[in-house]
User: What shape does this take?
Amino acid sequence: MAVHTPDELRDLLATVITGVAGGGDEAWRDAIGPVTKLPIATNARCNWRVTPQGSHAELGVIRTAVEIVRAAHPYVAG
Assistant: This one.
């Protein structure tokens, strides 16, 4: 399993969302917001989070993508 940097994980999320929902990668990256690395000591199951912004529909798409990507990539490096 590859461990991505926060920026790589954000790009992966944008690519997944663009493939499913359409639109542009850059617009989705903006809506996703930065990937924040969390300390493993207090977040053993997953060490990253996003704080997305957008419409109700966009937030739903982003949350679903986060769940899918997090299942395969629970940790970020960096």
Summary: The chain is about 55% helix and 10% strand. The helical segments are 6-21, 25-32, 56-72.
